């Protein structure tokens, strides 16, 4: 796991790095820690190349909240953790969808409890794909992806999360999408739709029922689609 620490105080950076080193040894993890002493240096090198980012709030050149807002314009989902002396900044952290908040000086017990939550989050998101939209990169959990729709070279990901349906739009081809989803129980029912077999409610005539929507099954694909769906259901939907 690659970790960025953006902190202008070297002693605080070393404290946090020591916690990572101890955690790594106790829990058989593997961390690569990269330290930046200001936000501008971090932005110059950031290219979706970190798994978690730790941000000091009060820094010269660019404060942590401003940096977090800049990061969110590029990446909507990467976990951001604020490390600061002032608890009142926790409220501001919600504006940039902060994953957690650590109060300095960070002791090892609090760090452990915090990082276990971060690990749980990654475990829940293991089966996910990253989609590049006009608003930046969005990580989509495959359990929440109901179906994918194609219109020319525009792809629409239909996602249902916490009861709310949203559609994510990106430029891609169905062939590429089909390859990305090939190992995750998705199947193409016609030239324009790929469906998540987990969310298939049934088949009616030449339509597959999914998320209260009827999607057509093309005649050339119907036999293979039905065989794949039957096999998936026979395996208990795994």
Short structural summary:
The chain is an alpha/beta fold.
Task: Describe it.
With 238 residues, the protein is an alpha/beta fold. It has helices spanning 10-26, 39-45, 64-74, 89-93, 108-124, 174-180, 219-234; strands at residues 2-6, 32-36, 52-56, 80-84, 100-103, 128-133, 136-141, 145-151, 154-161, 164-171, 186-190, 193-196, 200-204, 207-210, 213-216. A five-stranded parallel β-sheet has the order 2-1-3-4-5, with helices on both faces. It is elongated and about 65 Å long. The two termini are 28 Å apart.
For the structure shown, list the relevant keywords.
single chain, 238 residues, alpha/beta, 7 helices, 34% strand
Q: What is the topological layout?
A:
Elements: E1 2-6, H1 10-26, E2 32-36, H2 39-45, E3 52-56, H3 64-74, E4 80-84, H4 89-93, E5 100-103, H5 108-124, E6 128-133, E7 136-141, E8 145-151, E9 154-161, E10 164-171, H6 174-180, E11 186-190, E12 193-196, E13 200-204, E14 207-210, E15 213-216, H7 219-234
Parallel strand pairs: 1-2, 1-3, 3-4, 4-5
Antiparallel strand pairs: 6-7, 8-9, 8-12, 9-10, 11-12, 13-14, 14-15
Helix content: 25-40%
Q: What general outline do the C-alpha atoms trace?
A: elongated
| Helix-strand string | EHEHEHEHEHEEEEEHEEEEEH
User: What is the beta-strand fraction?
Assistant: 25-35%
Strand line-up in the sheet with most strands: 2-1-3-4-5
Number of strands: 15
């Amino acid at each position: 796991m690659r970790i960025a620490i953006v902190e202008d105080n070297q002693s605080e950076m070393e404290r946090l790095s020591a916690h990572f080193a101890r955690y790594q040894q106790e829990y058989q993890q593997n961390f690569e820690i990269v330290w930046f002493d200001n936000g501008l240096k971090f932005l110059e090198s950031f290219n979706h190349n970190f798994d978690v980012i730790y941000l000091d709030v009060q820094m010269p050149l660019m404060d942590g909240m401003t940096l977090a807002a800049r990061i969110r314009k590029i990446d909507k989902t990467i976990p951001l953790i604020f490390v600061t002396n002032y608890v009142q900044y926790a409220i501001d952290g919600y504006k940039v969808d902060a994953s957690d908040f650590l109060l300095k000086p960070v002791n090892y017990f609090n760090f452990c409890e915090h990082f276990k939550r971060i690990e749980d989050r990654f475990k829940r998101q293991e089966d996910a794909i990253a989609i590049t939209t006009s608003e930046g990169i969005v990580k989509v959990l495959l359990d929440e992806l109901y179906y994918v729709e194609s219109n020319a070279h525009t792809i629409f990901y239909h996602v249902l999360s916490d009861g709310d349906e949203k559609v994510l739009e990106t430029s891609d081809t169905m062939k590429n999408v089909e390859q990305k989803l090939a190992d995750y129980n998705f199947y193409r029912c016609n030239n324009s739709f790929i469906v998540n077999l987990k969310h298939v409610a049934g088949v009616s005539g030449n339509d597959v029922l999914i998320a209260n929507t009827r999607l057509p099954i093309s005649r050339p694909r119907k036999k293979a689609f039905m065989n794949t769906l039957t096999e998936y259901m026979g395996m208990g939907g795994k």
